[in-house]
Design brief:
alpha/beta, Quinone Oxidoreductase, Chain A, domain 1, Rossmann fold, seven-stranded mixed β-sheet, six-stranded parallel β-sheet, 8 helices, about 20% helix
Length: about 350
Amino acid sequence: MAEQMQQVSLATYCDGPPKLSDFKVETKDAPIPNEGQFRVRHIFNSVDPGTRSRLSGTDSYAGALPLGKAIDGFSVGVVDLSENPDYPVGTKVFCAGGWRTHTIQNGKGFIGKVADAVPLPLSLWIGVLGVPGLTAWFGLKAVAGFKAGDRVLVTSAAGPVGATAGQLAKAGGAEQVVGIAGSDTKCQWLVEEAGFDHAINYKAVPDLDAAIREAMPKGVDVLFDNVGNAMINRVLPMMRLNGRICVSGQVADYNLTPEETPGIVNTKPFITHRVMMQGLVVFDFMRHFPTALNEMAGLITKGQLKLKEERFEGIEAMPEAFCGLFRGENFGRRVVKVGDEA
């Protein structure tokens, strides 16, 4: 009997926030690599808010996912069959494996070997040392043009991207780093563990605009936004001269139709304060990934980059782990253990 694998597929297009019935868990024969290919047995898979943009049947910055296809995502695992001499059996890799227990790779695209010399948990290679951390790194440094002395505001700051961006700003000499999050517990962690100067619980303040102005009376040089248009519109009047906005994510807008998505109307600062705004797709910077990963691994080992992780068990837990992202339940990077580390 052929070896079996499991995957989570799209059962129906998402309408509004994703729900469990939008997904189905399937069992099928595990694939066999052809010449030049190798098979990765996944150990951890990620769930990512940005995946939601492909699940409504319409194209986003990536094409819509067809019904019946396995959900996209990132994985870290070990090569268990190989027809590629560069990736022998036993090699640990991170890759765009999707919501599966096994995947076929050919060594091209988003894939890399785990640095065994760096004694860090394997799951970090799809967290702070994966796409979330890389998004924070290049969003802050390449897109926002961060420089020492900047005053930085980070939204969805307790998530893996926001928390990393804020800490990178502090490590780079920011004058001030303020985070916005959704609970007192998250805000406490941002200040006491991640080293933010201040954190605002947007659910607890009567006037978020006033709370931001009070926390940042001199204004904002860099807005690192993971939330969406309403947040950008809110902060635009507070931007300083030559301020920069990095549009990193839009978690509040992913579940909305174009007609429901808020507009950005506070546009005068683009002229009066020469504000610049730019988004990013992190894979545009792939050739620079090794440098960023090495530097972030160094910050982790020195204790200058803290991280928070939530683990789920079993591939059948992936839909619930994903849906919870849009209920604001996550605190840090969510990963799902789908295989044995041994």
